[in-house]
Amino acid sequence: SGQESLSPSVARARHARSLSVPPQPRDCSLSSWSSWSKCDPCQKKRYRFARLEQPSQFGGDPCDGSDREAEECVTNSPCRSRARCDGFVCALTGRCIARRLLCNGDDDCGDQSDEKNCKKVFRKCDQKMEEYWGIENLAKGLNIFTNSLEGLVLDHRYYAGACSPHYITDTRFRKPYNVESYTPETKGKYEFTMTEYDSYSNYESTVLKAKATQSSFSVGIKIPKVFELGYSSNDMRFKKFMQRMKRFSSSSSKFLHARCELAVGVYKLKPRALMLHHEFLRRLRQLPVEYSYGEYRELLRDFGTHFIQEATLGGIYEYTLVMNSHELHKAGYSLSDVQKCAQKGFNIAVSFGKFSVGLGVDSAGCKALLKEVGDSTVRKQFVEDFQALVRGGASEEITTLAHKDLPTAQLMQLWGDAVQYNPEIIKLKV
Predict the structure, then answer these.
(1) Cβ-count burial of 423 within 10 angstroms (0-12 exposed, 13-18 middle, 19+ buried)?
(2) Is-contact 158 149, C-beta < 8 A?
(3) Is pTM beyond 0.85 here?
(4) Where is this region: Disordered (predicted)?
(5) 259 class by beta-carbon count within 10 Å (0-12 exposed, 13-18 middle, 19+ buried)
(6) 3-state SS, residue 270
(7) Nearest Cα to 390, choosing from 303, 318, 283?
(8) What element of type H or E holds 240?
(9) Could you tell me if 154 and 178 are in contact, meaning their C-beta atoms sit under 8 angstroms apart?
(10) How many angstroms separate the Cα of 178 from the Cα of each of 53, 284, 427?
(11) Cα 225 vs. chain centroid, distance in angstroms?
(12) Which residues contact 366 (CB under 8 A, 6 or more apart)?
């Protein structure tokens, strides 16, 4: 062939060099405009759009201008009238509500027009009640292609006059009209599931890629009934985590990944007759009668592709220890020893479960190893990096503590209490 076969070491060196060369910037480009749609009889407008042919990548220029256009037009075609309202038509939102909801002290219209010109207000709900924890996010649409929660699709501040209190511990909540049930959950303890990975490629394929694709689906793929809500592609927590971990892609490091999941509530939506958020309803009514790709695409961008039918709320606390395999080997330690040290360290203050104490490393060695995780003044021998990723219970204090050291029983209790009042969606059904 006239070509020398490369030795494995030379091939690896060339591969490493090729990885270090940054990719060329790619500018965003759009297709030419589509033809104009027919004149819509209700909006008295016609529409056209451009498709995305190449997204901006690697620092390339973004697309300038809009990818959809509308212009006024004239048509003789009649506009099909909307469904008749036998109740009260709200002034700005156009919502149709029952007349019994007028002058009851609630903003049932979403624009306060049902509470105007009242001779007397007959308050249905005098007692102070709280909103369910995390209820605002549950009303949003989900874009399953990006894992992002978008605009409000449902109105979870509409009660249809109902005022029966729902108690969770000592807190009194008011159940929204759209919600069938919101049940407190006590699943999950402060226990970590730990997994060892002897190479970056194993860690990447199991942990990093799974995070990037949880609930991210491509067109034509059937969506599972219940799935874990992964990180949004724009989530800075996830971006920083990925950037830090990718530094070890060409190393011989070993990885210990720990994960704890805590569920605090289960939410279920009513199966029918839902009250839509007034802004989403307004946008729906602005859509042309005849399908126009550009207008429907814009609606999906702003409000997502699906709404949430059921969800588990809570938090996920996970961390990764990156270990120097050469130094571990020199000291006669294995990755399993590190795992047992981490488990033992977590269980010092309080016993959340019994772990094996048959360590291949003595107590002093364990202390030295664990000290390297949080102490920036110690010269690192075994621990190359420590990265935490926390969802739910957002607080500056918890975030600071989580990124500083291995979790203690006290920190987990602090985090668990915060998750109760500030949960995130961890599993859902759309």
Answers:
(1) buried
(2) no
(3) no
(4) 1-37
(5) middle
(6) coil
(7) 318
(8) helix 236-246
(9) yes
(10) 40, 19, 19
(11) 17
(12) 341, 344, 345, 359
Sort 41 into a burial class: Cβ within 10 Å, 0-12 / 13-18 / 19+.
middle
CB-CB contact of 158 with 275 (8 Å): yes
Residue found by looking up tokens 């009209």 in the block: 177
| Residue 89 structure tokens | 């038509």
Concatenating the DSSP letter of every residue in 356-382 gives ----SS-HHHHHHHHHHHH-TTSPPSS
The bridge status of strand 306-307 relative to strand 227-228 is unpaired
The continuous run of DSSP H or E covering 261 comes out as: strand 254-269
Residue 382: closest CA among 395, 400, 397, 370: 370
Query: Residue 331: what residue type?
Result: A
pLDDT tens-place values along the chain, 430 residues long = 444 455 555 455 455 444 557 788 888 888 999 999 999 999 999 999 999 888 888 888 888 888 999 999 999 989 886 778 999 999 999 899 999 999 999 999 999 999 999 999 988 888 889 999 999 999 999 988 888 899 999 999 999 999 888 998 888 999 999 999 999 987 666 778 888 898 888 888 888 776 655 444 444 445 555 667 767 767 777 788 888 888 888 888 899 998 888 999 999 999 999 999 999 999 998 899 888 899 999 999 999 999 999 999 999 988 898 988 888 888 888 888 888 888 776 654 333 233 333 445 667 777 777 777 766 666 778 888 888 888 888 777 787 778 877 887 888 888 888 998 899 998 888 8
